[in-house]
């Protein structure tokens, strides 16, 4: 038998064997996502559902935990390629993906703040750094700072070869991951403009309040 030119990424069960049920569900979710308007709420929910399902079946095939953060990052971009069915990305599209990645824990962080509010600690400004949500919040702030400074490292999906290699990457393979070319990116243009607007608004408010505002270099 000949293999199809672009086989669908395998979905594995605990035994490591192909799980046709999960594969069929995943393919149906991808088709459903493709039929929806990309900016609609239904598309957003379908996208999250698919990511959640992939996260459940994802298994890191290595004992070296020091690579776990990078492996999880590469897995996110790999799944994005599978869902987008793209052969190459523009730099702006890659920035948007990077920004989406930094916000992957936002729901859990928001839930933690909501829970704090319910239990009468609504004045809390930051979550406990030792809590899981608090660790996610600290990580988010760090990654956002890298983005704002144009120093957030991601696979270079503006290169068609990297897109192809990452799409075919065997999740958890550290050696293959190291061979993938990366690039440092910043905030998407739209969000960059929003951040500039906030800074300008803050400076204007300070001037109106009679405060000294440092000159821009």
Quick recap of the structure?
By secondary structure, this protein is mainly alpha-helical.
Overall pLDDT: 75
Query: Which percent bin holds the helix content?
Result: 55-70%
Number of DSSP strands? 2
Structural class of the secondary elements?
mainly alpha
Question: How would you characterize the overall build of this protein?
Answer:
Helix 1 (20-35) packs antiparallel against helix 2. The N and C termini lie far apart (65 Å). This protein is mainly alpha-helical and 217 residues long. The chain is built from nine helices and two strands.
Jot down its keywords.
mainly alpha, 217 residues, two-stranded antiparallel sheet, single chain, globular
Which secondary structure elements does this structure contain, and how are they paired or packed?
Elements: H1 20-35, H2 41-57, H3 68-84, H4 91-102, H5 106-118, H6 132-148, E1 152-155, H7 160-167, H8 174-178, E2 182-185, H9 189-208
Antiparallel strand pairs: 1-2
Helix pairs in contact: 1-2, 5-6
């Amino acid at each position: 038998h000949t293999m199809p030119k672009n086989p669908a990424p395998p979905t594995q069960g605990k035994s490591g064997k192909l799980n046709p049920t999960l594969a069929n569900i995943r393919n149906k979710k991808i088709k459903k996502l493709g039929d929806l308007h990309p900016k609609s709420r239904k598309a957003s929910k379908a996208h999250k559902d698919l990511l959640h399902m992939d996260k459940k079946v994802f298994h890191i095939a290595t004992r070296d935990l020091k690579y776990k953060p990078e492996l999880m990052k590469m897995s996110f971009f790999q799944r994005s390629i599978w869902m987008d069915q793209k052969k190459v990305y523009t730099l702006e599209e890659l920035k948007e993906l990077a920004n989406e990645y930094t916000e992957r824990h936002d729901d859990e962080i928001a839930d933690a703040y909501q829970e704090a509010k319910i239990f009468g600690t609504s004045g809390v400004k930051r979550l406990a750094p030792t809590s899981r949500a608090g660790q996610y919040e600290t990580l988010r702030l760090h990654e956002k700072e890298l983005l704002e400074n144009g120093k957030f490292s991601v696979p270079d999906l503006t290169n068609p070869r990297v897109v192809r290699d990452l799409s075919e990457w065997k999740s958890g393979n550290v050696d293959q991951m190291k061979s993938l070319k990366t690039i440092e990116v910043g905030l998407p243009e739209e969000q960059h403009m929003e951040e500039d607007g906030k800074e300008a608004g803050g400076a204007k408010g300070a001037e109106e309040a009679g405060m000294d505002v440092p000159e821009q270099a």
